[in-house]
Write a structure and sequence with these properties.
The complex is a heterodimer of chains A (504) and B (82). Chain A has helices at 8-16, 22-40, 48-63, 106-113, 156-163, 180-185, 220-230, 291-306, 322-337, 359-362, 367-378, 381-394, 400-423, 446-450, 457-461, 491-503; strands spanning 43-46, 75-79, 117-122, 169-174, 189-192, 212-217, 277-281, 310-314, 426-430, 465-473, 479-486. The longest helix of chain A has 24 residues, at 400-423. By secondary structure, chain A is α/β, with parallel strands linked by helices. Helices cover 37% and strands 12% of the residues of chain A. Chain B contains 2 helices and 2 strands. By secondary structure, chain B is mainly α. The mean pLDDT of chain B is 82. Chain B has a two-stranded antiparallel sheet. Classes of the chains: A alpha/beta (504), B mainly alpha (82). Chains A and B meet through helix 9, helix 11, helix 12, helix 13 and helix 14 of A and helix 1 and helix 2 of B.
Chain lengths: 504, 82
C-alpha cells in the first residue's frame, strides 16, 4: 500500500514500528499536492515548512522511544475558515485575501497538541456560503472523481483533498451540510458533531446557532479519531458543552511503542445491530431525488435489515419547511456576523488601497463610503445576497413575518426529531438528492442550489449529530452518500453505527 | 452596487423571498420562539464576570497591525462629525 492510502491507525502503527518516518509520510502527501492540486485546486495555502517542522518533532519523539499519540505525524488539512496562527486565513473571500490569523482556533491548538502535521488551508465557498465551492472568491475546486464536476460545498477543498489522497484527513465546518454533502459527492466520510460538542473559537463565524467544526476522512474510524481529538468544552466558546455521552478526548489515547508491535486502544463496540431501531422518514423519499441515489440508499437500508436491525417508517412532518426556515434564519445571523468586515479594523479596505490604480473605485469622502466600498468590492454575490435577505428579515416591520416565524417553525422541526428519537436510535436518509453536478450547472439559480441542503439542513436546525458515508456509485461512477442522523450527544453511537455499516 | 447589479440582485432576492413565503402555511399560533439550542449549558454557567483581562501584548500588536490605517496605537477612521 502507498503511504497516502493508509488510514490513521495504519499510519500510526507504521510510524511506531519505524517502517517509515513522519517526514517521509509528510513528503508523500506534499508530493501528491504538488502533482495533483494543479488540476483539482483544493488548496488555497500549502504550509510545507510548518508541516515538515511538525513532522521532524514527531520523528525526534519516536527516536527517543517516547510514546506517541495516535494523531502524531498524521497529515491533516484545514478548511480556510478555521484560524491557523501566522498563516493566511481567507474564509474563501477577497475581503480577507491578505489577512494573517493572529491566533490559533481551539481545534487547531488541540491538533497541534496531538502532534498532527498541518499541510495547508483548503478552498471553500466564500464564508462557507454555498453547496459547491463555486462561490469561492478565488477559484472553484474540482471533484477528483470527475474534474468537470463540483466536489460539493462549502468544505469542497477539504473533501477533494482527502478523496484525492492529498491529505490523510481534514477539518471542515458544517452549517447546513457543508461537511456531509462534499463528503458524499467525493465518496468519503464526513461527520458533523452535535452542536456544542466542538469549540467554535477561531472558526470564522457564519451562523452561530448552526456552525460546527467536524471531521472529513476516508473511513469512519479515522473520522472518529479526529473528532475525539478536537471535541470538548472550551471556556472560550460558551455554547460548547461537556457531555458524558461525548467525552473529552482521553489524554491516554496512546499506543504502546514496543520494539516489534503496537496496539491502539479502541473502545470495544457495545452496540449490537439486532437491537438497533432505524427510522426512515417518509418525507425524505419523495419526487425530485435522483433515481440512482434512491436505489443505492434503499439497498443500504436493506443491508441493515438483513443484518438484523429493525427498520421503521417515521414521519418528520415539517420537513418541507426546513429549507425556507433555514434560508431566513441563517442569513439573519450572517448579516450580524459579517457586519465586522467594514474595512476599519482588518481585511480589505478602500482606506488603504492594496494596489493604488483605480482612483474612482478607491475615492472615499465619508466613513460610510469606506464601509460601502470595502464591502461592495470585497464580498462576492452569494454573500451579498444573504446579507441583504438577513438584514431585510430582521428589519422593523418584517421581523415578525420572517425571522420570528422562521424561528417558531424551527421549534416545530426540533420537536419532530425529538418525537422520532423516542421510537428510533438513528435516522437514515440520502445525504444529498443528487450526485455531484457539473461546475456551472446551478450557479445562476440560487434556489436550486439551496435545495441541495434539503436532507442535511434540518440536522443543523435541530443541533443534532450526523454522519455521511459512501453507500454506492452511480452507473457513471459518481459517489453516493448515506446519512445517519443521531440524537444530541449520541455522536459515538452514530459513529459506531457507521462502522457497522462499513463492515456489512 | 452598480445599476446592473441592482437589477440582478432584485430578481434573485425576489425569487428567494417567494420561496420562503411557504412558511406562511405553518400554524404557529401557540409556539413561543424563545429556546436555546445548547440547552445543556445553564444560563449561569454560560456567563462570566464583566471584567477585562490582560491580553498577550504580541497578539494585541498583531491585531493593531491588521488595521488598514493606524496612528500610534490607535486605529484611524474618517471623521463622523464635521
Amino acid at each position: 500500500m502507498e503511504l497516502h492510502e493508509l488510514t490513521i491507525t495504519q499510519a500510526h502503527e507504521g510510524l511506531a514500528k519505524k517502517e517509515f518516518s513522519a517526514i517521509e509520510l509528510c513528503k508523500a502527501f506534499l508530493d501528491r499536492i504538488g502533482k495533483l492540486d494543479i488540476k483539482i485546486k483544493a488548496f488555497l495555502t500549502v504550509t510545507p515548512e510548518l508541516a515538515l517542522e511538525q513532522a521532524k518533532k514527531v520523528d525526534d519523539q519516536i527516536t527517543v522511544e517516547r510514546e506517541i499519540s495516535v494523531l502524531s505525524g498524521i497529515p491533516v488539512c484545514i478548511k480556510d475558515n478555521i484560524l491557523l496562527k501566522d498563516v493566511r486565513c481567507t474564509a474563501g473571500s477577497k475581503i480577507l485575501e491578505n489577512y494573517i490569523a493572529p491566533y490559533d482556533a481551539t481545534v487547531v491548538k488541540k491538533l497541534k497538541e496531538s502532534g498532527a502535521v498541518i499541510l495547508g488551508k483548503t478552498n471553500l465557498d466564500e464564508f462557507a456560503m454555498g453547496s459547491s465551492t463555486e462561490n469561492s472568491g478565488f477559484f472553484p475546486t474540482h471533484n477528483p472523481h470527475d474534474l468537470t464536476r463540483v466536489p460539493g460545498g462549502s468544505s469542497g477543498g477539504s473533501a477533494a483533498a482527502v478523496a484525492a489522497g492529498m491529505s490523510l484527513c481534514a477539518l471542515g465546518s458544517d452549517t447546513a451540510g457543508s461537511i456531509r454533502q462534499p463528503a458524499a459527492f467525493c465518496g468519503i466520510v464526513g461527520f458533523k458533531p452535535t452542536y456544542g460538542a466542538v469549540s467554535r473559537y477561531g472558526l470564522v463565524a457564519m451562523a452561530c446557532s448552526f456552525d460546527q467544526i467536524g471531521s472529513i476522512a476516508r473511513s469512519v474510524e479515522d473520522a472518529r479519531i479526529l473528532f475525539e481529538a478536537i471535541s470538548g468544552k472550551d471556556e472560550l466558546d460558551s455554547t460548547s458543552v461537556e457531555s458524558k455521552a461525548c467525552p473529552a478526548p482521553k489524554r491516554s489515547f496512546w499506543c504502546e511503542v514496543e520494539s516489534r508491535k503496537s496496539k491502539v486502544n479502541t473502545p470495544p463496540s457495545t452496540l449490537r445491530i439486532q437491537n438497533l431501531r432505524i427510522g426512515i422518514p417518509k418525507e425524505y423519499f419523495v419526487e425530485g431525488i435522483d433515481k440512482e441515489v434512491k436505489e443505492s440508499v434503499r439497498a443500504a437500508i436493506k443491508k441493515f435489515e438483513q443484518a438484523g436491525a429493525k427498520i421503521l417508517e417515521i414521519s418528520l412532518p415539517h420537513t418541507e419547511y426546513s429549507v425556507p426556515a433555514y434560508y431566513i434564519i441563517t442569513p439573519s445571523e450572517i448579516s450580524a456576523n459579517l457586519a465586522r468586515y467594514d474595512g476599519i479594523k482588518f481585511g480589505y479596505s478602500v482606506a488603504k488601497p492594496q494596489i493604488a490604480t483605480d482612483k474612482k473605485r478607491m475615492a472615499t469622502n465619508t466613513l460610510l463610503d469606506v464601509y460601502l466600498k470595502s464591502r461592495g468590492q470585497g464580498f462576492g454575490d452569494e454573500v451579498r445576497r444573504r446579507i441583504m435577505i438577513g438584514t431585510y428579515a430582521l428589519s422593523v416591520g418584517y421581523y415578525d413575518a420572517y425571522y420570528l416565524r422562521a424561528q417558531k417553525v424551527r421549534r416545530l422541526i426540533i420537536h419532530d426529531f425529538d418525537e422520532a428519537f423516542k421510537k428510533v436510535d438513528a435516522i437514515l436518509t440520502p445525504t444529498a438528492p443528487t450526485p455531484a453536478f457539473k461546475i456551472g450547472e446551478k450557479i445562476d439559480d440560487p434556489v436550486s442550489m439551496y435545495l441541495c441542503d434539503v436532507f442535511t439542513g434540518p440536522v443543523n436546525l435541530a443541533g443534532l449529530c450526523a454522519l455521511s458515508l459512501p453507500c454506492g456509485k452511480t452507473k457513471a461512477g459518481l459517489p453516493i452518500g448515506l446519512q445517519i442522523i443521531g440524537k444530541r450527544f449520541e455522536d459515538e453511537k452514530i459513529l459506531e453505527i457507521g462502522k457497522i455499516f462499513e463492515e456489512l | 452596487m452598480t445599476k446592473k447589479e441592482e437589477e440582478k440582485f432584485a430578481g434573485e432576492l425576489s425569487s428567494i423571498l417567494d420561496y420562503v413565503e411557504k412558511l406562511k402555511e405553518v400554524d404557529i399560533k401557540n409556539i413561543g420562539a424563545d429556546f436555546r439550542l445548547a440547552q445543556e449549558v445553564s444560563f449561569e454557567k454560560g456567563m462570566r464576570e464583566d471584567k477585562t483581562e490582560e491580553q498577550n501584548i504580541e497578539t494585541v500588536k498583531k491585531l493593531i497591525k491588521s488595521a488598514p490605517s493606524t496612528k500610534d496605537n490607535y486605529i484611524k477612521v474618517k471623521s463622523i462629525l464635521k
